[in-house]
Amino acid sequence: MANDNGKRFVVAIDGPSGAGKSTVARGVAEALGYMVLDTGAMYRAVAFSAKKRGIATASINELTEMAASLDIRFVGDPQTPRLMVDGCDITDFIRTPEIGNLASAISAFEGVRKVLVEQQRRIGASGGIVTEGRDQTTVVFPDAKVKVFLDASAEERARRRYEELVEKGQDITYEDILAQQIERDERDSTRTHSPLRVAEGAVVIDSDKLSAEQVIERILELCK
Asked: In b/e form, how buried is each residue of 81-119, taking b as 16+ CB within 10 angstroms?
């Protein structure tokens, strides 16, 4: 799908952790024939690398330098790409609560954000992407043709995350997930740099009572 000038455009989706952004972005991208840009995965890549190298989350300068030095790439299927860092596939190691919390803490640092925002804009410069994260509609692609804020209650998001992790065999309780969700929401929405908020012109979709397919249909309608 292209705009009036024949150029493929950017679909930007923001929202809190667990709102279903990744699933919806993949569905929209598949329908449009676009690439998925999972920006949250990029912050998780930085968090994973910091943990692996023993860099503390308080070492802001060291984290920023490390983020700038990482070779982060998405390869393979455009809708379900694998995440490569310095030539290693880390896709299966970044979706843990620990890495998620580290990524949330690291994403508050202006230096790290500048490094990754620059990379995200370069990837999306030619259009043809569905990008999702927490600052895609407000900071990275404020002029995107389609801007969506995908929301859901903390309880519903925690339920979805709990079922996902249990299915993967992780030993965790719903109450722990909900507590982490609330803590992360507070951190993401109150950070100094690029806090999570609804962008001007963004369409808010509450997915509490919607299936992923219904949310995808609504976004595809916005793309017409």
From this structure: bebbbeeeebbeebbbbebbbbbbbbbbbeebbebbbeb
